[in-house]
Amino acid sequence: MSGLLNHPGLIFLVSLVTLTLFAQLGAGVIGRHMDHGKEAREDFDIVLAASLTLLGLIIGFAFAMSVSRYEQRKNYEEEEANAIGTEYVRAGLLASAPETEKVRALLRGYLDQRILFYRSRDTGELLKINARTAQLQTQLWSAIETAVHEGQPSPILALVVSGMNDALNSQSYTQAAWWNRIPPAAWVLLGVIAILCNVLIGVRASELKERQGLLAILPAILSVAFLLIADIDSPRGGYIHVRPLNLMSLAASLR
């Protein structure tokens, strides 16, 4: 199911077809065997209204969850750019010019990999980016360790070490935010309630002569809602992405 959640367009199509079929099922098979008396109809309308209200609340919660995760990814991109930029400046506090240039060259390469991480949509390419990022992180920390061992301990050197630690940790926070998605169980619950609501709509519409247009409205609305939620929640799928504007701006300023 995780693969499907990375393709919002496919979620829209699956939702539209599935919900429409269940609405037709409610109008056709189930609707024929329902009691359409006045009292039964009133009780049924109460159940339908309560079900649609619950569905609306859950969709609202799911949308809020997806938006909060999107904002979190944006915030960590900004923090990551700030951490790398700060450490780039602090590298100038190292004892020798060759050490400073080495650390700054590694930071520029590391920054390029972080930009590619945000832009990449290919799984194979992403694995290479992650491997190269891990390699650069090792080299950056090794360069700082060498500077620490060769120089005298001082508050200034501690500041450089702390800055490097923040720059490398920011990548871990970013990765955790990209893994933080709406749980599949929440999607299953949302789908089940949406299906049941469409069945109820179909049953209620079975009393109407012209019901085809009515049966298409709710599936279409819900499918668009699912599309938007999945698009915002998916870091790489769909059309709404976090662009590394802060990282790109930093890269331009360093060159």
In short:
The protein is mainly α.
Order of helices and strands: HHHHHHHHH
Query: How much strand?
Result: under 5%
Radius of gyration: 27 Å
Count of distinct strands: 0
User: What proportion of the residues is helical, as a percent range?
Assistant: over 70%
Total number of helices: 9
Low-confidence stretches: none
Shape: rod-shaped
Distance between the termini: 43 Å
Class by SSE composition: mainly alpha
- Mean pLDDT across the residues is 87
Task: Please tell me the total number of domains.
Answer: 1
Biggest β-sheet, characterized? none
Give a structural overview.
Helix content is 82%, strand content 0%. The chain has 255 residues and is mostly helical. The protein has one domain (2-254). The longest helix has 53 residues, at 38-90. The chain is rod-shaped, with a radius of gyration of 27 Å.
Key terms for this structure?
82% helix, 0% strand, mainly alpha, 255 residues, 9 helices
Topology, pairings included?
Blueprint: H1 2-5, H2 8-30, H3 38-90, H4 97-119, H5 123-150, H6 155-179, H7 184-205, H8 212-233, H9 245-254
Helix pairs in contact: 2-7, 2-8, 3-4, 3-6, 3-7, 3-8, 3-9, 4-5, 4-9, 5-6, 7-8
